[in-house]
């Protein structure tokens, strides 16, 4: 019965914090900042946390903020939110649309940040329900490799005694009020690469005097797809995509070089390692057959994520009992999206959930994350706050 009363207390505080969280989300949405430039966002977070009595600390040149809520002896957990925006021109028409031309919170990180601020307020007011330490981690630069998580871990500011970490990401796969869960492998690992093909330029009327990098690049892009269809098991999902191709300045000039960029994704670290090696081999050998040269550069990217089975089951049971069985959706398949939260999960056990933001009471416009017209349902902020609190109180409950 004591736990039920605690639940009622928490629900009451969530309702009280919801309005403020919405205002915070809109303030952040109006003033989005690109990866590595989250200074104003970090300042807003720092000011809010200071205002509720915490002692936040800046990191990574004042783009990251961390604050601990300490409540006696016990376990130490981390609750994380990412804060950066995307280079997208917003087209939602919302009254609180981005004030920065060409920059938009199109991936929901404004929601993530406001949700964790709301959860911080509730947890700070309900210390009688838990014991231990909760570190609030507001992380920059999730959208660019190697990622803010990698940078924070490299800087040595991630606490050593942490036993669990929790985070969430908005998703239009699920309705507002729902949380999507998957035990074990969830997000894919990613490897990004840049290729420069060097040939010899000439006039379009004398192709025999050239080493055409465009024709070579076309062959390379086509050949690379055979790595997925012929060198990867159909039982090990993997994708290889080329996202940019650049070459030439005029239609009648064969250029002397071409460039393209791609991404490789898989849930298997071994597959990523094998395919990255083969990408380099195939590009260099194929380029040579065209009398061209090719340089391949791989970037440090995100590993596959893994949700701790015990934490997943514990969260699922607790959240379902509090908010109904329909509030938890068990996802049968992993996603090929990538997330730098996986770096934390390599250090400590963790859980990363999919927060439903598809409007349930009105028509959905059909635009998901990374769209200029992405509009998440703000009602999901309550569910997000409840998710953080459910995890924290289950891990640290008295």
Describe the protein.
The chain is of the alpha/beta class and 398 residues long. It has two domains: 281 residues, 3-Layer(aba) Sandwich (Aminopeptidase), CATH 3.40.630; 111 residues, 2-Layer Sandwich (Alpha-Beta Plaits). The chain has nine helices and 16 strands. The strands form four sheets. It has an eight-stranded mixed sheet with strand order 1-2-4-3-5-16-6-15, with helices on both faces. Strands 10-12-8-13 form a four-stranded antiparallel sheet, covered by helices on one side. The chain has a two-stranded antiparallel ribbon with strand order 7-14. Helix 3 packs across helix 9, helix 5 runs antiparallel to helix 6 and helix 7 packs across helix 9. It is elongated.
Short descriptors:
Aminopeptidase, Alpha-Beta Plaits, 37% helix, alpha/beta, four-stranded antiparallel beta sheet
> Between the first and last Cα atoms, what is the distance in angstroms?
13 Å
CATH class type of the largest domain: Alpha Beta
pLDDT averaged over residues? 96
CATH architecture of the largest domain: 3-Layer(aba) Sandwich
Structural class: alpha/beta
């Amino acid at each position: 019965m004591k736990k039920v009363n605690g639940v009622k207390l928490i629900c009451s505080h969530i309702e009280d914090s919801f309005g403020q969280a919405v205002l915070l989300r809109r303030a952040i949405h109006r003033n989005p900042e690109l990866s590595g430039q989250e200074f104003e966002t970090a300042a807003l977070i720092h000011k809010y946390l200071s205002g509720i009595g915490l002692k936040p600390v800046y990191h990574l040149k004042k783009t990251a903020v961390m604050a601990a809520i300490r409540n006696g002896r016990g376990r130490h957990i981390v609750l994380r939110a990412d804060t950066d925006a995307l280079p997208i021109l917003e087209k939602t028409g919302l009254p609180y649309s981005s004030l920065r031309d060409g920059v938009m919170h199109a991936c929901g990180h404004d929601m993530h940040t406001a949700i964790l601020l709301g959860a911080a307020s509730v947890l700070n007011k309900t210390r009688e329900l838990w014991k231990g330490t909760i570190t609030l981690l507001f992380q920059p630069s999730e959208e660019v490799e190697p990622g803010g998580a990698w940078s924070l871990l490299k800087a040595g500011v991630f606490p050593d005694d942490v036993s669990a970490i929790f985070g969430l990401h908005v998703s239009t796969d699920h309705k507002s009020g729902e949380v999507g869960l998957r035990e074990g492998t969830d997000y894919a690992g990613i490897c990004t690469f840049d290729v420069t093909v060097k040939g010899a330029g000439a006039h379009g009327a004398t192709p025999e005097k050239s080493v055409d990098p465009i024709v070579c690049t076309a062959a390379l892009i086509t050949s690379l797809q055979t790595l997925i269809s012929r060198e990867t098991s159909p039982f090990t999902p993997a994708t290889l995509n080329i996202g940019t191709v650049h070459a030439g300045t005029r239609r009648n000039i064969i250029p002397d070089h071409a460039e393209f960029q791609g991404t490789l994704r898989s849930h298997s670290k071994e597959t990523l390692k094998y395919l990255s090696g083969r990408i380099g081999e195939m590009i260099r050998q194929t380029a040579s057959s065209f009398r061209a040269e090719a340089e391949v550069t791989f970037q440090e990217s995100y590993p596959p994520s893994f949700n701790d089975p015990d934490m997943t089951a514990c969260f699922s049971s607790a959240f379902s009992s509090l908010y109904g069985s329909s509030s938890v959706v068990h996802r049968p398949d992993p996603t090929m999206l990538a997330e730098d939260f996986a770096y934390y999960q390599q250090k400590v056990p963790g859980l990363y959930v999919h927060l439903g933001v598809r409007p349930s009471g009105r028509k959905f416009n059909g635009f998901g994350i990374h769209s200029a017209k992405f509009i998440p349902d703000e009602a999901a902020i309550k569910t997000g706050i409840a998710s953080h609190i459910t995890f924290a109180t289950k891990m640290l409950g008295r």
